[in-house]
Specification:
Elements (H helix, E strand, L loop, with lengths): L1 H16 L8 E6 L14 H16 L9 H18 L12 H11 L22 H15 L7 H13 L7 E3 L2 E3 L1 H9 L6 E5 L8 E3 L12 E3 L2 H13 L4 E5 L6 E2 L4 E2 L3 H9 L2 H10 L7 E11 L4 E6 L12 E5 H7 E7 L5 H7 L3
Parallel strand pairs: 4-6, 9-12
Antiparallel strand pairs: 1-10, 2-3, 4-13, 5-6, 7-10, 7-13, 8-9, 10-11, 11-12
Length: about 375
């Protein structure tokens, strides 16, 4: 009985952290302490789930207690901002479930954040999130408002829009109780989480813009038109590696639609034909080509939480996904090869202290 209890507790521990370090296919080099794997379920809100996980990991790094933050809180307020932008652009705007890491930071800056216990973000009677109808219903409201505006836009469109959001997600409370104390979303961040959105920066690497400049990266889901620092690929990889080596996780945005992205094996690698083509040019040139011809697409956000080597000694990045802890044999984690990350990374979000000083200086980051 004692041995069985020990094994049960052992398994529960690794289910909690979402990853079994002793798996024979890989040897862990570095693993950053993080929170349990999340599950976005039937939603297209990976940007919020990945960045929420990233924030929880940042809170741990900052010496805070383990938190379970609400991804749907960020979704709610991002939809509000998207709706106003859609109407102000007379419908010439991308209103969808998608988004970017900075959307979460923008919500924190204006509205704060809160735990799942205060805002689960699900009003309907189902055991999982399902936004298949929500996006269509919200889009129809703003489209009808814009299309129906003859001489003047009716102010009632927003009441309808917010009513749908409240019906699906619930209206976020202005005050809530957490462990016996009352907080607002702003005070909760200030006292228990400690995230300053102005301490976080996004980086990308494409040659159609000058390096070491701030750019409006051309992504449909960059609806807020936030700007990214555009830097050489070599520097982008230096930031990733420096961060992980020094205990900072990385909020990662990239392409997961490749043929050798394998959920069954829990690995992501480039095809042999890709490697051959890279050898004929360079990683930077091939990276640009695949972005320009849409073979590298902005699909998904996840979190890099460590490094590992396979049996052949090749470097991989330990990656925390948001599809639940039972979708593959690694408890919701996967391994992306170094070459895959170099080509298929769209952008990253990182704390300023994780940026090597010489790169920060070139970008003008203080």
């Amino acid at each position: 009985m004692k041995r069985h209890l020990f094994l049960t507790l052992f398994v529960l521990f690794f289910v909690q952290w979402g990853f079994a370090q002793t798996h024979p296919d890989f040897t862990i080099i570095k693993q950053i302490k993080t929170t349990p794997v999340k599950n976005q379920q039937l939603t297209g809100t990976c940007w919020s789930f990945a960045t929420t996980s990233y924030l929880e990991t940042e809170a741990l790094r900052l010496g805070k207690s383990e938190l379970n933050l609400s991804p749907m809180y960020f979704v709610y307020y991002s939809y509000i901002d998207k709706a106003y932008d859609y109407v102000r652009h007379h419908g010439n705007f991308n209103l969808s479930e998608g988004g970017q890491a900075h959307d979460v930071m923008n919500v924190i800056r204006r509205y704060g954040l809160m735990p799942v216990s205060a805002y689960p973000g699900k009003k309907y009677d189902l055991p999982y999130y399902n936004h298949s109808e929500l996006d269509k219903d919200l889009h129809s409201v703003v489209k009808n408002a814009v299309d129906g505006a003859k001489e003047i836009l009716s102010p009632t469109w927003f009441l309808s829009f917010k009513g749908i959001l409240d019906a699906y997600l619930g209206a976020p409370p202005k005050n809530f109780s957490y462990k016996g104390k009352t907080y607002t979303p702003i005070s909760f961040n200030k006292k228990l989480v400690g995230i300053n959105p102005d301490d976080y920066f996004e980086f990308t690497s494409y040659t159609h813009h000058p390096f070491y400049t701030l750019i409006d990266l051309e992504l449909p889901d960059n609806w807020a038109h936030n700007r990214y620092y555009n830097i050489p690929l070599e520097d982008l990889m230096k930031i990733i590696n420096n961060a992980l080596e020094n205990g900072y996780s990385v909020d990662w945005d990239g392409d997961v639609s490749e043929k050798k992205w394998d959920n069954k094996t829990g690995t992501a690698k480039l095809r042999d034909i890709d490697i051959t083509r890279i050898k004929k040019s360079s990683f930077q040139a091939y990276r640009q080509r695949t972005f320009d011809n849409f073979t590298t697409t902005d699909d998904h956000l996840m979190q890099l939480v460590g490094t590992a080597k396979n049996k052949e000694g090749d470097l991989y990045y330990l990656t925390k996904n948001s599809w639940g802890n039972d979708y593959n044999k690694y408890g919701g984690y996967l391994y992306m090869s170094k070459d895959y990350v170099k080509i298929k990374t769209i952008a990253i979000l990182i704390h300023k202290d994780a940026i090597p000083k010489n790169i920060a200086k070139k970008c003008g980051i203080k």
